[in-house]
Amino acid sequence: MNLDTSKWDKVTLGEIARSLTISTKNSLSEGLSRYIGLEHIEPGNIHIKSWGNVADGTTFTRIFRKGQVLFGKRRAYQKKAVLAEFDGVCSGDILVCEAIKGAVLPKLLPFIVQSDRFFNYAIKTSAGSLSPRTKVKDLAKFSLRLPKLDKQKPIADLLWSIDDSIESYRKAKRILEISLRVLMETLIKKPNVNSVRLGDFVTAEKGLTYSSEDYGDEKTGELLINLKCFEKFGGFNKNGIKFYKGEYEEKHVLNQSDLIIANTDITRDGDVVGYPVLVPDFRNRVVLFTMDVSRLKIKDKNKMVSGYLFYLLRTNWAHWYMFSHASGTTVLHLDVNSVNELPITKVDISVQRDIVCRLNSIEQNCKRYQDLIESAKEIQKQIINQIFE
Q: Under a CB-based contact definition with an 8 Å cutoff, are residues 183 and 362 in contact?
């Protein structure tokens, strides 16, 4: 998409949008039943996907209305900006703004604050070390070029049509994910009186011990899988990878499709503890794992399929076992012996393979939709950045 923006009007954010700081003393009496904190805003997503209930208690008093834009002015590098799709109250660390009539189309404003240039400006104007914040008066000086009002509609329509596609892909993916979980719980039975130990089928191996002094970079270090690479329900976060430049042994080297689990959780919520990951293909790079991670090495491949174990450890009952057997007050730790004692139902190898095949089919479709989401988001981002360069 090629746009000539040189003849567009040069404006500041303060000239096209106003900041609002309207508060309430009693949210519920004004019909405001939901609240939004920074934790409810997903980076890079223009839609609000979660919220809190005012009835459960909150100290937030700042009012926002449907159609207004919410921007996280604290830690702007997290890139949190959304369009309000309902009325509610929000944190004081969230800037509430709305389009000035006749200056910019309200449905175009959310994309302005989603541009990389705006986020970079917000980061640059932030002050503070531990919790940097940007100020409204600084954001108001952000400059950009805009076409006349009647020329803004085609641009907004294009961006929203892409967003509609992204949301439809997300919905389809979510339906598949629910189907996967239901089928997984149905096919992989809870242990019964004739159950066996997981330790009868696998050997648990812990990763290497390291310190922050051993960190390298992508050129000088080896890939190091750690707790930040684990996501809830067995997802892998490649952005969590660190790089290690210290010494290591062969037993600390992972191979593609090795099954690893998180031994520790950084909170007591148990979001990742005990959840598995299958090591991706890193194209001949050396891949290591930390002491907070265990590799589960199958003793006899004629008795257990790694893919079956991967899905088994993602079931609700297996995760509950891991969570309930983890110890700690502020941080959860899962002992290797507890992993070995996990009771499982003995299943014929051919049945295991059939289960893996059925579940893999759904998971591959989930991945296809995720790829479509990422592609559409990239196209949308390129258009946004070109318009508001």
A: yes
Residue-level pLDDT at 66: 95
Distance of CA 254 to the CA centre of its chain: 25
> How many CA atoms are closer than 13 Å to the CA of 271, on its beta-carbon side?
10
Token representation of residue 342: 């996990």
Band of pLDDT at residue 60, cut at 50, 70 and 90: very high
**Residues 6+ positions from 328 with CB-CB distance below 8 Å:** 268
Dist. CA 45–CA 326, nearest whole Å = 34
Predicted TM-score (pTM) of this structure? 0.83
Q: What does the angle CA 171 – CA 173 – CA 177 come to, to the nearest 5 degrees?
A: 115
Please check whether residue 84 is in contact with residue 64, taking contact to mean a CB–CB distance below 8 angstroms: yes
CA distance 124 to 121: 5
| DSSP character string of 151-177 | HHHHHHHHHHHHHHHHHHHHHHHHHHH
